[in-house]
Amino acid sequence: MTMIFDTKIAVVLRDDLPVWQKLNVTAFTVSGIAAKVEGVTGEPYEDGSGHRYLPMFKQPVLVFSADAGAIRRAYDRARERNLVFSLFTEELFATGNDIDNRAAMKAVPTEELRIVGMALRAEKKTVDKVLKGLSLHR
Q1: What Pfam families does the record point to (predicted)?
Q2: Model's pTM, two decimal places?
Q3: For the domain that residue 49 is a member of, what is the CATH number?
Q4: How far apart are CA 55 and CA 77, in angstroms?
């Protein structure tokens, strides 16, 4: 059964990151969506032997790639539309916990953020406008 969604979940990753950082940024940024967007996850999973697993998103997560300029444009477009989204900056690679992560981001003015990733969930048309010109990650 194919489902059609009114919304889109998307992650944008800066294209010059090593693979381990891309995976790390993806995991961190989508966790914000799972934690704060009500109803975005389904029910827990269970295998044929009765072992239970955590729930996952109800819809696909699309991952896009962008250079530094393009990810900044997507960030600016998301802010112009007053979207709520998660953000990962270069400084967060040097920290080891949530408290230090928040302090590292707070220390940098908006215009100086070195964005390496972001994740958002919004109406499909809005996400498409924010991500206009970006390609899916390969």
Answers
A1: DUF2000
A2: 0.93
A3: 3.40.1490.10
A4: 31
